[in-house]
Write a structure and sequence with these properties.
The chain has seven helices and four strands. The chain is mainly alpha-helical and about 170 residues long. Helix 3 packs parallel to helix 4. The protein is globular and about 40 Å long.
């Protein structure tokens, strides 16, 4: 989880590979109207987000029911969204890729072909609610290398008893 430009997708792909589980890019579940709105520099409303959040929750429910698990790259900026995901899958664990606004702006401005413009980065920081003490997860510095972040996340998941056994090799 985190603001645009923090590295959710690249980190999520690496973590899913490490754990041997499916990966979901939550941006792929946005309705076309949401993508158009964001590309025009207009932030989404709660109403806009509702079908997107429901689709992510459904994916989590399916991954939980099938016992495959998975990694989802999703902004999940608000506490209530993360609570919705935790209701969909009781073993949801959160990795917050924390980043300062200037770095996020720089990274988003460099991206080509993405619907999220740099003009919306400030609105994401305005919405961001960091992980609370009741939320299982870890906050890491998104300026670290992707591999270092994945190593930290895998170690924390193992320590928390969220993964283990032959299917999920120990980090390192």
């Amino acid at each position: 989880m985190g603001v645009s430009g923090c590295g959710k997708s690249s980190t999520g792909i690496l973590l899913a590979e490490r754990l041997g589980v499916p990966f979901l890019e939550a941006d792929d579940l946005h309705p076309a109207a949401n993508r158009v709105k964001m590309a025009a520099g207009r932030p989404l409303t709660e109403e806009d987000r509702r079908p997107w959040l429901a689709a992510i929750s459904e994916w989590i429910e399916q991954a939980t029911a099938s016992r495959t698990g998975g990694v989802v790259a999703c902004s999940a900026l608000r506490y209530r969204y993360r609570q919705m995901f935790r209701r969909a899958g009781t073993r949801v664990w959160l990795l917050h890729l924390a980043l300062d606004e200037a770095t996020a702006l720089r990274r988003v401005a460099r991206r080509a072909g993405h619907f999220m413009p740099a003009a919306l980065v400030d609105s994401q920081f305005a919405e961001l609610e960091p992980l609370g003490p009741d939320e299982p997860g870890l906050t890491v510095d998104a300026d670290n290398s992707r591999q270092a972040i994945v190593d930290q996340a895998a170690a924390a998941l193992h320590s928390a008893g969220r993964v283990g056994g032959a299917r999920y090799p120990e980090p390192g």
